[in-house]
Amino acid sequence: MIKPVLKMGDPCLLQPAHRVDQLGTPELEELLQDMQDTMAALNGAGLAAPQIGVSLQVVIFGVEHSPRYPDAESVPFTVLINPVLTPLTERMEEDWEGCLSIPGMRGLVPRYTHLRYQGVDAAGASIDRTVTGFHARVVQHECDHLNGILYPMRINDLRKFGYTDTLFPGQTIADD
After folding, report:
1. Strand 114-120 versus strand 105-112 pairing type
2. Angle at 43 between CA 57 and CA 34, to 5 degrees
């Protein structure tokens, strides 16, 4: 079921999410289906459970090809529960990000360029990936939601944060 996405300022988006203790429950399956339906309906690159009002450490993400990121590599659809991120470099790169919880806006956000993420999928199978580039950016963005962090909190220069239609006039760029 498509759920409303909470917007910046909602207290649920500003608090750390709780670990998932039980996998394979009907409640978790329903949450994952709701997240997938919502992300698909809004053409998002990812979604975190707190964005639909559920304070659990669950994110989903995946991008085949996005007109918003025409040069970005595809990212496989992933369900990631109780994630742990480990930067593998101190190198960071800035790029434009948007968020379904901050509709109509974009910001230039620094992110680690190379990292390892670990966790489990919906069936409890271990996930352990080392990623770079756009894939690393998407994972960091979604997992930030689990720590009560929205991308504007990471922007170094607020002159690089604004409304999408003003920053990119004449371009059609949807929210993430």
Report:
1. unpaired
2. 45
CATH classification of the domain holding 90: 3.90.45.10
| H/E segment holding residue 75 | strand 75-87
Residues 21-58 have pLDDT tens digits of 999 999 999 999 999 999 999 989 999 999 999 999 99
Is residue 3 one of the residues assigned to a domain? no
Q: Number of structural domains, the chain?
A: 1
Cβ partners under 8 Å of residue 169, min gap 6 = none
Position 6 in a domain: no
Query: Which residues are part of the catalytic machinery?
Result: 142
Sign of the Cα pseudo-torsion (19, 10, 40, 99, in order) = negative
Kindly state whether residue 46 falls inside one of the protein's structural domains. Answer: yes
Of residues 63, 59, 66, the one with CA closest to residue 77: 63
User: 91, 100, 96, 119: which is closest to 7 by C-alpha?
Assistant: 100
Residues spanned by the domain of 17 = 11-167
Cα–Cα distance, 162 to 59 (Å, whole number): 26
Task: Say what the pTM is.
Answer: 0.94
Residue 142: which of 92, 89, 77, 91 has the closest Cα? 77
